């Protein structure tokens, strides 16, 4: 589904990604973890072209992300993206946030867009809030709306960039519960997170990064049982403690 080959990226003279390679099969749930500044968020944003890269290749369902003739808006319409800070339109109601992309990008009628949007709003348990504006919702509710908005576009895969990092602790589980449900339904997912409980519960692969390098790319059970690098062992000991 997603193949990342030898990706390198620089910000000026600073190299933020160094020869990164991995692949995500259909139905995989890959958790990308590591210390702050390790390149996790940058890597996941290269998958749908939000971050350009200078070397390497990325393909999503056979489409080359970096090719000059690739229609990136069309590609992004097929890959759901959920950010740290929700990125909802503050001046639009929840219902309009759910329908705008469907109408403008996918060309759906307003009626069909509303039907699909409300279906996924119900899926995340917020149907009663369809007429509210983002500022009237808690952080956890806003993030669940953002997930519903991404799902309404019928993505082939979902990317999550630290989706719980901006939430109060009591709101984290309501978002993770939705993500666990998606994983159990077979959604292909790449998730940048520090939530190791989530990783243990639903991931089948774990990628560990530090200083722009993928140090480990292994099955979830192997990563938690016996990480291969000293850096990963130290990270796990600190974060699980």
Automatic annotation (TrEMBL):
Protein family per UniProt: Belongs to the ABC transporter superfamily.
Coiled coil location: none
Subcellular location: Cell membrane
Stored Gene3D superfamilies: P-loop containing nucleotide triphosphate hydrolases
PROSITE patterns named in the record: ABC_TRANSPORTER_1, ABC_TRANSPORTER_2
Topology in the lipid bilayer: Peripheral membrane protein
GO cellular component: plasma membrane
Lineage, broadest ranks: Bacteria, Pseudomonadati, Pseudomonadota, Betaproteobacteria, Burkholderiales
Domain of life: Bacteria
Pfam families in alphabetical order: ABC_tran
Name of the protein: ATP-binding cassette domain-containing protein
